[in-house]
Structures are given as structure tokens and as C-alpha cells.
Write a structure and sequence with these properties.
Two copies of one chain form a homodimer. With 303 residues, chain A is α/β, with parallel strands linked by helices. Chain A has ten helices and 14 strands. A six-stranded mixed sheet of chain A has the order 3-2-1-4-7-6, covered by helices on one side. A five-stranded mixed sheet of chain A has the order 12-11-10-13-14, sandwiched between helices. A three-stranded mixed sheet of chain A has the order 5-8-9, with no helix packed on it. In chain A, 52% of the residues are buried. Chains A and B meet through strand 9, strand 12, helix 4, helix 6 and helix 7 of A and strand 9, strand 12, helix 4, helix 6 and helix 7 of B.
Chain lengths: 303, 303
């Protein structure tokens, strides 16, 4: 907390979540707020109405500049902010900031990032995560940053520039296989079984075929090698292990910064340690978003 | 069709399907019948009652020996016939045949096969497909046989012996990703787009990470590189291509026999031709099952 005067309202506005920050002139956070106005929960509200609805008490400052990041800048958001292509540093991303259409608010929106994927003409994209990455780059410095989630991202930052990143469908794959495939059938009363998880990681690390390996969740259950309550941990290990295997292939074992908190990030930390990553730092996701929004507002001379 | 006297009743009895054959003494099929008494549709009927319910007209021959294959021999079937481990020829599989508990019928059940998978202690299994493979081995001879489906199998037959096989979750993965993941969101009015399919195959052939590559269904749709009606073909190509890539890695490009019919097998044939497989034969699945049941009945001296 700070005694400095309010200078900026900023928010990470995603499909599900909305996290609002009020910054003082010194860049410290005066107040935080979360609200249930993610894009999928807007209902009949316009973006402007939704934003005004949360600007109460400390946040009742329509006079301040506003900076938004996340899916609010997508094609289905308030105003599309086209992807900026990697390599991109803070000046490049800030050059892509767009103005939201509003008579009442001075709101601007951060673009997402795109990067070459494995095949010619194929791109990876992110929206929202780039702000966390630039935030940590501004505070912590260069690293590879890992953002576990539905579609996990691994981004490389060199000299403050995001040189590239990859996306993995790991989180969503876990959910759909567990809930909707035969692999979930034998699962029961899930526990966090570290041995089963690491067995999955180990097998993924030396694997030849994902479509073949993942089927072992079924056979290991059928033959009673892994108990029903541990099959979920095993599947999780297979998936996170497959992702780490790909990243080691791309960039080798290296220092990584894990962004986020909770169970999933704990699993990534466990798998990374198990596979030879020795320099792992952890960073709060909200703080990273706030740091990125502030860094961009400064760079873009919004404040 | 044949004029020889009836000698054997045999059926492929699976989770969904039931296919009954009446063989003459010369091994020719006198009559065929299908019925809706797959394991999941039995309702209150016992296996014996269900089988008796379809033994009408030509099939009303409770005096004949009966041979059954498929999930009817699983733990949740009529009588478990434990997996026979590869390498296994006709004598070995036949040695694993078990007798079904029945006072009214002389029914026997074929076991499934198990084989080493990629990791120590890990097994692949099949039930029903082994009968098709032995059937074709007895008629067509040695080959690699490919059985597309929910859980596709690739089996190697040398000197009439199934030396090993692999399972791929390809068919089920396609269904769950299309129906339950974000990848299906952009799909619309699916068509069979050969170019999109082969693009998927090509990318899978040179890919580094399944979890990363599969996400390209989303980005290719988002960027308008692949139209909504073609994204399903692209996903299908990625999956079948991943499977073929693994098989080329395991055993190289080789002559293959494709078992089955319909759209899915057409797609496999298209992908195999595209990836350098020049010797591809196609075989009807029902005929393969019938040939296998007959070969096993002879080997086991049931007739």
C-alpha cells in the first residue's frame, strides 16, 4: 500500500476472470478488486457498462487513464488489438495498444503476442499472458517463463524481448480425457499420488508416441498396476511430462520462472525438479499482471 | 454359399456388435446374422439367453459347437479368457480357449492377446481383433495388419505368429477433442477436405510435440488459414499422421493390410499412400473375423 495519489486504473480482463488494480503515481498498488464480469459472463452489459459497474469506492475514478489486457482485446472483445509478432519488447507491444470506443472512459487495450510455431505458416498466440511476462521481465529479468493452465505457455525472454513461445493443450487435454474418454472410466476417488505422477513423467520423457502412451492409463488400470485413485495422477504426469519433453527438445534444461499458484503449478514444479530443472522460481500471477500493466502504462506514457 | 452340412456356429461378440456365422463342413459360410446383443445392450438377459435368442431358423442348431471371440471373453463377459501373450501363433491362442458355463450349449471363447508396450512392465491388449488377424494370416499370409477404430491396432505377423502390436487412442481422441474441447468450437458443416487432411498428416510426420501441434487446429481456424468446414479433416490428419509417424519409427514403411471398411479406413489408406506406403491391401472386417473363427475351430479340433 502507498500514500501516493491514484494515477492509473488497470485490469486483466479475460474470458472468465476480471482483476482490477488501482495504481499510485509511484507504481504501487493502492487497491485491488475482482469481479464476475469475464467475457462469458457479461450478459446484456456492454464492455463500457461492465467496467463502469465495478468503478466504485476507491475505483470511482473515471478521470484516470485505464489500461486493459486479456481477451478484452480479442476479436470478440471490446476492441480488437491485433497480435504483435515476436520477437517483441516493451516498445513493440506498447506500439500495438489500441483505444477502446468510449465517450466516458479513457480506456486502452494491450494487444496479444504471436510467434512462429513448429511449422511454416503456423503461429502460436497468447492474450493476457504477455502482460504477466513483461511484468516479470521488468522486475525479475530475463528467463524462460512457464504459465501452466488450460493452454500452457512457455516463453523465452532475452534482453527484455520475448523472442518466442510455445503453447501446449495440456490442461484442457487432461480435462477432456478424464471426463469424456475411456481413460476416466477406471478413475475413482482421486488422490495426489506422487509416485504415479512421476512414473507418468518418466514414461513421457522417453516416449515415442503420445497416442499410444496415453492409452496406458487404461491398461495400467486394467492390470491393476496403478490403483483407481492414482490413475488421475498418472495421466497428469504423462501430459506434463510430454510438455516438458518437448521443451527440453526445443531449448534444453534451463532456468525457468513459474507463473501462477495452486495445485497445477505445484505439479509443474514437481515435474520440473524431477526432470533436471534446478533453477526454478515461482511468481504470483496477479502481481505479474499488475507489474506488466504498470510497465506498459509507463512505456506508453499513459501516466 | 455352400451345400455342405452345417458344422459350426461362431460369433464375434463385442461391446456394441454381435456378428453370427454358420459354417459348413468345408469352412464356407452358410448364413450370417447380426443382432443388437452387444455386451452393453444385454439388459437383463444372461449371455446364454441372449445367444439362444438369436439361434433361430438356420441358426437353430444347439447341437453344433459354438466358438465366440471378442469382449464376451473379458472380465465383464460370459467367461473370462485371460490374454495370451505375444509372440503367439494359432496353437498358442487356441490353447487359451475357455469353455463358457452353459448346460444347453457347447460354447467356447477365444482369448485376447497382450504384447509388450514401449515401457518395461507396460502391456498392450486386444480382444476380437486377434481373430481377424489370425483369419487373414491363414488366408492372406504374413503382413503388418492395421485395424482402424476407436483404439487403432497395428500388429506384425511373421510365419503366422503375431510377434507384437501397438494400440493408439486415435479414434477416441478425435471424438473427444472434436466434441468436448475448444478445437471443435470453430468447426462447422464438416466436409472431407483432402488438402486439409494431408496438411495435417504432413505436419504430424515431422512434429516435435503432439500437445503443441494439436492446438494448431485452433490457431489455423482463428487466422482463417483453414476454413471451419475443413478443420475436422485437418484434426483427423494430425491424429492419423501422428500414429503413422510412430509406426514408421517402430517398424519402418512396409506392406500393410488394412482391416475394415467405411470412411475411416479410406482416410487411413489415403494417409498411408501419402506417407510412402506403396503396398496396401484392404480386407473386409467380417470376413476376417469369420476366417479367424474357422481357423481356430479347426486348430482346436472343435469340428
Amino acid at each position: 500500500m502507498t500514500d501516493s495519489a491514484p494515477a492509473l486504473l488497470a485490469a486483466d480482463w479475460g474470458t472468465t476472470n476480471f482483476r482490477l488494480f488501482l495504481f499510485g503515481t509511484d507504481g504501487e498498488i493502492i487497491a485491488r478488486h475482482t469481479a464476475n464480469i469475464g467475457l462469458k459472463n457479461l450478459g446484456v452489459l456492454t464492455f463500457e457498462q461492465a467496467l463502469l459497474s465495478v468503478m466504485k469506492e476507491d475505483f470511482a475514478r473515471p478521470d484516470l487513464p485505464i489500461l486493459l489486457c486479456g481477451m478484452v482485446g480479442s476479436r470478440t472483445g471490446w476492441q480488437e488489438a491485433p497480435y504483435v509478432h515476436c520477437p517483441a519488447g516493451l516498445p513493440e507491444i506498447v506500439a500495438g495498444i489500441v483505444t477502446a470506443p468510449s465517450d466516458k472512459l479513457r480506456a486502452k487495450i494491450v494487444p496479444g503476442l504471436s510467434a512462429e510455431a513448429d511449422h511454416k505458416g503456423l503461429l502460436n498466440v497468447m492474450r493476457g499472458e504477455e502482460t504477466q511476462i513483461y511484468g516479470l521481465a521488468s522486475k525479475v529479468g530475463d528467463s524462460s517463463y512457464v504459465l501452466p493452465g488450460t493452454h500452457c505457455k512457455w516463453a523465452q525472454v532475452e534482453n527484455g524481448i520475448v523472442t518466442g513461445f510455445s503453447s501446449y493443450m495440456t490442461g484442457e487435454m487432461f480435462q477432456v480425457l478424464k471426463r469424456h474418454s475411456i481413460l476416466g472410466d477406471l478413475m475413482e476417488d482421486d488422490i495426489d499420488d506422487e509416485a504415479a505422477f512421476l512414473l507418468g513423467v518418466d514414461r513421457a520423457l522417453e516416449d515415442k508416441s503420445f497416442l499410444s502412451l496415453v492409452f496406458s492409463v487404461r491398461t495400467e488400470g486394467l492390470f491393476g498396476h496403478i490403483q483407481p485413485e492414482s490413475l488421475s495422477s498418472y495421466l497428469s504426469g504423462l501430459l506434463i511430462g510430454s510438455e516438458i519433453r518437448a521443451e527440453i527438445g526445443r531449448h534444453g534444461v534451463r532456468p525457468v520462472g513459474l507463473i501462477g499458484d495452486g495445485t497445477l503449478v505445484n505439479l509443474y514444479e514437481r515435474a520440473l525438479k524431477h526432470t533436471g530443472f534446478t533453477q526454478i522460481t515461482r511468481h504470483d500471477g496477479d502481481d505479474a499482471s499488475a507489474a506488466g500493466l504498470w510497465a506498459m502504462a509507463q512505456q506508453g506514457k499513459l501516466i
